[in-house]
Design goal:
eight-stranded mixed sheet, alpha/beta, two-stranded antiparallel ribbon, single chain, 10 strands
């Protein structure tokens, strides 16, 4: 197991209502080959079959600006509210209006120091994470740096044998994160997930994030996990069935961060917004931001 160095001088607060900010609810029948339930993460072959089933019906698309999914500025404002200002109540159920609750605006305010850990992580994973975080840095202005010590965004791609050791290490350092990790590793429905910790002195400022993916998940499905979970660890914490074209939708239509989702990140990290804003406070500002950065009802003129 790689050494993990975690520290932050500020007290940390864990918000149980928003700790696990992303999940993938899969068909238990598809992953457990017809069984009513399965304990622990499904096998690599089950995940491969699931990915093939999705791509066979046209899901896990890799186009990021699809002609068949236009969206207006009004759509963007509404979708920001659904994704950034709500959170899922039960991570093992699909994201929708019935499984969500109001959430204040939450985001990072300082540099992100990331590290990739676990025997399941490959050079291709490292390249994907590095490239993706560099792109997000361009979009949001957040400084991103890979470090060996004082990590505050921990990305885990673990194999089954090392998960007990990771769980024990998390239990010593951040018990709340260990709870989420153990929920994930014992579930047959949650493919990948992200958890956040918040500063005790600055409510709704994210100061630590953890992304969890199993080595059993491979190929495009793994890339999809990397894209969605990191984006959700940045503060876009919900999923909604009517948000399209987007990775923040449990139907798995899109695999990679879309241009629609890039707009959501730009809005979230606009300095006119602030952590802790309620929907009532944030949405009028969001409308102003959208009209400025994406002129015209359909974004014409950019």
């Amino acid at each position: 197991m790689s050494s993990i160095w975690l520290s932050d001088p500020r007290p940390l607060r864990h918000d149980a209502g928003t700790s696990v900010v992303a999940r993938r609810a899969l068909s238990v029948a598809a992953l457990c080959l017809g069984l009513a339930a399965c304990a622990g993460q499904p096998s690599s072959s089950a995940y491969r079959e699931y990915e093939l089933a999705l791509t066979a019906i046209g899901d896990l698309r890799t186009d990021t600006a699809p002609d068949d999914a236009p969206f207006t500025n009004a759509d963007l404002v509404r979708n920001f509210s659904r994704i950034a200002l709500r959170h899922e109540v039960d991570i093992e159920k699909a994201g929708d209006d019935s499984n969500s609750a109001p959430n204040p605006l939450q985001r990072w305010e300082g540099p992100i120091r990331w590290g990739l850990y676990g025997r399941g992580a490959t050079p291709a994973d490292h390249a994907e994470v590095e490239r993706y975080l560099a792109h997000i840095s361009e979009i949001t202005g957040i400084e991103m740096e890979e470090v060996e010590r004082d990590v505050n965004l921990m990305i885990l791609i673990t194999d089954p044998a090392e998960r007990p050791a990771f769980s024990a290490a998390l239990r010593r350092l951040y018990p709340a994160l260990a709870d989420g990790f153990d929920t994930w590793r014992s579930s047959g429905r949650v493919v990948c997930m992200a958890s956040n910790l918040f500063s005790a002195m600055e409510d709704d400022v994210i100061v630590f994030g953890m992304v969890v993916i199993g080595s059993e998940v491979t190929g495009l499905l793994r890339r999809s996990c990397i894209h969605e979970e990191i984006a959700q660890a940045l503060g876009l914490g919900n999923d909604h069935p009517e948000v399209r074209p987007s990775i923040f939708n449990d139907d798995e239509e899109f695999a990679l961060l879309t241009e629609h989702d890039e707009w959501l990140l730009r809005i979230l990290y606009d300095q006119r917004l602030a952590p802790g804003m309620t929907e009532e406070e944030a949405i009028p500002v969001v409308r102003e931001i959208v009209e400025e950065i994406r002129p015209g009802p359909d974004g014409d003129g950019i």
